[in-house]
Amino acid sequence: MSPLLSVRDLHVKFPITRAGDMPWTKPRFLHAVNGVSFDLEPGKTLGVVGESGCGKSTLARGLIQMVPATGQVKWRGETDLLSLSPRQIKPYRSEIQMVFQDPLASLNPRMTLGQIIAEPLRTHRPEVSGKERRARVAQMMERVGLLPQMINRYPHEFSGGQCQRIGIARALIVEPKLLICDEPVSALDVSIQAQVIELLKELQRDLGLAMIFIAHDLSVVKNISDEVMVLYLGRVMEKAPKALLYDNPQHPYTQALLSAVPIPDPVAERAKQIVPMTGDMPSPMNPPSGCVFRGRCPRAQADCAEVVPQPDDDLHRVACIHPGPMRDSELAQHAAG
Amino acid sequence: MVMTSEQRVEATEIAGKGRSPWADARRRFFRNKAALMGLVILGFVVAFALFGNSLAQWSNEELDYNVMGQIVELGGPSIESGHYFGTDDLGRDLFARTVQGTQISLAVGLVGALIACIVGTLYGAVAGYFGGRTDSIMMRLVDIFMAVPYMFVLILLLVMYGRSITILFAGVGLISWMEMARIVRGQTLTIKGREFVEAARATGVSAPVIILRHIVPNLLGVIAVYATLLVPLMILTESFISFLGLGVQEPLTSLGALISEGAGTIAYGTTWQLGFPLLFFCLTLFGLFFIGDGLRDALDPKDR
């Protein structure tokens, strides 16, 4: 099966102008996404994880040309979305829809529920009559677990979980093939998180949606993804099918992230190996040479500063020149130091 | 589909029409005593301007030959003579003149504010939404226009094209939109960064539709507040020009022109000629300022 979305070497750079710069000064660039590649098959989910500021959201926005990106984004193996003009890309916008992080902020406070959910329909299928549109909105509301009577209400009258359902209904009303969820549950209660995730899984199953699911919470991603990609400073650190990544993480960064997930069992939690990680993420304006993670890596060695790790294996991609699970000696040494 | 408990609670409510942010604001506005008083005052002034003429015994053009020459003794406010507010220096009924002046002043204020709202809002929203170079050029243009001493330009216009009410409207409209454009542009910058605008862009909604459907409705609060404060400003401008003797032309008059006349004759003891127009002038301004204040509180509940 040919992939629905095939991304090769995606870069997103923002020019940074400082106060006092002259118009002819060459701007410095912030490299937010640096050479990301992946394939996404129809109906599958790619989870994207990483710390804040690692470029997860920028990656999502780059894919749909909300921010200027370079590289190649092939849709159904044919069209390169990045080569399209704003007018040409419009039909594809109905095929790729997005769900946002802050449920309430992503809804216009001056529009009713019906108007909000109908907006993509009005934009992409102007031929649909008002009556038909209303019917479809009501149907979609029911589908995501909202009462159709609430169609004339305003967003501020709803809870966070309900607002996120509205966001999902708005995204799905035009029957997209790909749904990009940008931290859709980060702003929600844990109990509501589970409901929203279950809803997304159910909708994915019924509608055959492909999803890119962005989160900073590994346990959330584990629940929903088929494949997981770990980003650090705009670069892919590790990418593997879910089971492989969670059971056998090869990159020290992934190991550190996984060891930071709390286990709801005090005994297991205390016995857990913690992979240490110190310091903060370096500035993407001025990334370290070689491997970008080396400054915080418990296993960093001299050659890490020289060689930029190039992942090759396509199934389990690891951007590290010293991959493999942490050895006890390493952990002990770090604990002592 | 299984309903969650929170939805079931919702379901028990009567799920009819939603409470819009506008309805909320209206409720808060009507709970504000000062704003309500402003509304009553303004209502009174507007009613005076609209229906005052039917109460007047004299038209605004008629000269009362009985009082002419003896304005100080006979031209004072009195019920019997039918000059409720007295007469002006020429023996014209001041009540009718004040009605007419209020009409003109309110019209100037409204037209100025209306032009400001439409032109200023669209200009500011476009500049703010597109940003970058478009924004720079559009806003620098406003800066340049604002640097021009508008009173001077307005006076030149009135001198060149003659004193007419159309020129006055045009002049007031020309200057009023710039401040509004700046305010709207600033607000647009904050709104355009909100996620719902991004959501609309990601869906593929075109820029003009985003501006009209998502940005302008969220600006209306600011616009409404600023417009109510702009009306008195326009009235003041017109009054100032009329006071200089360049405003509306006789037999038309405005509150500013009447105050000017009244101020000129106050030395003779005809205080009513200044007092009544001034009273209506002040009432209008107070009313509008209180309403503006109330609107600001009502539309921006976080800002209290």
Topology, element by element:
The complex is a heterodimer of chains A (337) and B (304).
Chain A (H helix, E strand, L loop, with lengths): L4 E12 L11 E13 L4 E5 L6 H8 L5 E7 L3 E2 L9 H4 L2 E4 L13 H12 L5 H14 L16 H13 L5 E5 L7 H18 L2 E6 L2 H7 L2 E6 L2 E7 H6 L4 H8 L6 H6 L45 E2 L9 H9 L1
Parallel strand pairs in A: 3-8, 3-9, 6-7, 7-8
Antiparallel strand pairs in A: 1-2, 1-4, 4-5, 9-10, 10-11
Helix pairs in contact in A: 3-4, 3-5, 4-5, 5-6
Chain B lengths: L4 H8 L8 H11 L1 H23 L15 H4 L19 H37 L1 H16 L2 H11 L4 H28 L2 H9 L3 H37 L11 H11 L5 H29 L5
Structure annotation, total helices of chain B: 12
Terminal Cα span of chain B? 43 Å
The main sheet of chain A comes to: 7 strands, mixed
At CATH level 2, the architecture of chain A is 3-Layer(aba) Sandwich
- Determine the mean pLDDT of chain B: 81
What is the ordering of alpha helices and beta strands of chain B? HHHHHHHHHHHH
CATH C-level name of one domain in chain B: Mainly Alpha
Tell me the helix content of chain B: over 70%
Name the shape of chain B in a single word.
elongated
Number of helices of chain A: 11
Q: Any idea how many domains of chain A?
A: 1
Describe the protein's architecture and organization.
The complex is a heterodimer of chains A (337) and B (304). With 337 residues, chain A is α/β, with parallel strands linked by helices. Chain A has a single domain (5-95, 176-336), classed as P-loop containing nucleotide triphosphate hydrolases (Rossmann fold), CATH 3.40.50.300. Chain A is 31% helix and 20% strand. Chain A is built from eleven helices and eleven strands. Chain A has helices at 56-63, 90-93, 113-124, 130-143, 160-172, 190-207, 218-224, 242-247, 252-259, 266-271, 328-336, and strands spanning 5-16, 28-40, 45-49, 69-75, 79-80, 96-99, 178-182, 210-215, 227-232, 235-241, 317-318. Chain A is globular. The model of chain A has no long low-confidence stretch (mean pLDDT 87). In chain B, 74% of the residues lie in helices and 0% in strands. Chain B is built from twelve helices and no strands. Chain B has helices spanning 5-12, 21-31, 33-55, 71-74, 94-130, 132-147, 150-160, 165-192, 195-203, 207-243, 255-265, 271-299. Chain B starts with a helix and ends in a 5-residue tail after the last helix. The A-B interface holds A 64, 66, 89-90, 93-94, 97-98, 100-102, 105-113, 119-120, 123-124, 142-143, 145-147, 149-150, 152-154, 156-157, 159, 161-162, 167, 170, 195 and B 1-4, 6-7, 10-11, 15-21, 194-196, 198-205, 209, 213-214, 217-218, 220.
